[in-house]
Amino acid sequence: MSFNGKVVVVTGASSGIGAATAIHFSNLGASVVLTGRNSENLQAVAKQCNEERTKFVVADLNKDEDANTIVAFTLNAFGKLDILVNNAGILEMGTIETSDVNQYDRIMNTNMRAIYHLTTVAVPHLIETKGNIVNVSSVNGIRAFPGVLAYCISKSALDQFTRCIALELAPKQVRVNSVNPGLIITDIHKRSGMSEEQYKAFVERAKTTHALGRPGKPEEVATTIAFLAGDGASNITGATLPVDGGRHAMCPR
Ligand code: NAD
């Protein structure tokens, strides 16, 4: 698989799945724009990519104007945009009894509204290149889990966004798909407030909650994102593809 001559934007590229995705696309020959909020972390990931074909831009997706900054930066750096990976996201714990509408707003703003907005800015350029979009959703988008209510809602909304805009953009030959990871080892859970001990137990439990008997690695999501973005997936659009060791197919028994 080669992405020679392709220009890819990866949001949330300073850590976890986004970092692995940026590095993977770079290894496959793409020019990559990494974006995130932390300059030092972005720089550290950029160093693991091809020097000539990699740029990074600091942007906060919760600021509307930063979406324009990301797209303008990309066009200025590489002249076009072929692939948008909407990866940045946040997780917070909370049930209908313990969360409030402020948590709902924080999660929906980052996991859905910011993606909606950045995509509207990027789409005219993706139409020009007949490019494509890969959204990073979650198994929480396709299955219900207690204790992460707003997060589940945000990822379900993202899956519907994927399907709807896939239909809207198909006549223009722009494909739109999502990956739906299960538990992947990154910092997102600890960032959401899980203690080391709770996280250790959560990862241990993944041996039984994921059919393949283990959590996943960011690189396994990155390779699936690249597959969906590549010519090998030229007849795939509107798909929500689990990368979850079979978790979505399991039932309690
Ligand atoms: P992560 O915390 O390492 O990555 C999320 C990235 O998004 C971070 O770099 C963070 O700084 C960035 N981000 C958050 N808010 C932002 C904002 N307002 N502006 C710019 N950047 C922002 O965790 P990750 O696991 O790599 O998460 C990446 C994506 O994968 C998320 O959308 C997450 O929901 C999804 N996901 C993760 C898992 C998992 O188990 N790790 C499972 C399913 C889905």
From TrEMBL:
NCBIfam families: PRK07231.1 (NF005559). The gene is LOC108566027. PANTHER family: EG:BACR7A4.14 PROTEIN-RELATED (PTHR43975:SF2), ZGC:101858 (PTHR43975). The keyword Oxidoreductase applies. This is 3-oxoacyl-[acyl-carrier-protein] reductase FabG-like. It comes from the Eukaryota. Keywords: Oxidoreductase. It holds the Pfam family adh_short_C2. InterPro entries: KR_dom (IPR057326), NAD(P)-bd_dom_sf (IPR036291), Sc_DH/Rdtase_CS (IPR020904), SDR_fam (IPR002347). Residues 6-187 form the Ketoreductase domain.
